[in-house]
Amino acid sequence: MVMILTIIGPKVQAQQHDYDKNVLKLHLSPMVLNNYGLQYERMLSKKISVAVSGRFMPQGPVPFLDKLESIIDDPATFSDLQSLQMGGTAVTPEIRFYLGRHDGPRGFYIAPYTSFSRYNLRLDDFLLTITDEDTQTELRKEMDLQGSIKGFTGGLMLGAQWRFGKSVYLDWWFLGASYGSAKGNLDATVPETLSQEWQDELRDRIEGLSVPMVKFEPTVHAHGVNSRISGPWAGIKSGLSLGIKF
């Protein structure tokens, strides 16, 4: 009897990923607020990814300002905000943890994130008024204020992402809340020398800007003002993004 011994060696195969690792997305919902942004998402493992969003807002009026009228109880401040122009950029990195049964960037997820933003500010025709004591007439002066504000926040987002066909993704971030701080400046320079009366009026007008939770600290001088802005920076967001794998 002849015995034949067959030795079968281990079969080595390269590990294959059955999910998409890279998705580029266009933010759809923020366009309503005159914001335009992209997000790149990269899978680190079957259930974890990192994503970075970039957002740009052209200079323009404050979006949905009329919705804030009820919480701004000072008519003069609301009138000033109607003239405010702002625009800027934001960068938001996040880590996503997918909890569904699918591997890759699909299903329900939770995502801690941070956001770094910078907005340029312009407030034209900022009106000052004083009364001439000799003639008892009202004198008016307008000046243009310019500055910027930087914000840093951290938060948590809940969402879900679906794949349609082999390449297209729909990302629905249905609840995101963040909190942090902001600081900046709002300044003006005029060619003429301001009298003490005009300086006092300028200081009173800026200190009187009644924006909720925002603090203005003006330093007035003979040719204008340098104002510090500070306060909490919070937000709630939701929206849709449309993406494609690559």
What does this entry look like structurally?
The chain is mostly beta strands. The protein starts with 21 loop residues before the first strand and ends with a strand. The chain has an eight-stranded antiparallel beta barrel with strand order 1-2-3-4-5-6-7-9. A hairpin with a 6-residue loop joins β5 (107-131) and β6 (138-164). It is elongated and about 85 Å long. Helix content is 8%, strand content 59%. Residues 1-14 have low confidence and may be disordered. The protein has two helices and nine strands, in the order βββαββββαββ.
What is the number of helical segments per DSSP (H or I, 4+ residues)? 2
Q: What level of helicity do the residues show?
A: under 10%
* Tally of DSSP β-strands: 9
Secondary-structure element order, N to C: EEEHEEEEHEE
Largest sheet: 8 strands, antiparallel, barrel
What attributes does this structure have?
single chain; 246 residues; mainly beta; eight-stranded antiparallel barrel; 9 strands; disordered N terminus
TL;DR of this structure?
The protein has 246 residues and is mainly beta. It has helices spanning 75-82, 196-207, and strands at residues 22-27, 36-43, 48-61, 84-98, 107-131, 138-164, 168-189, 215-221, 224-245.
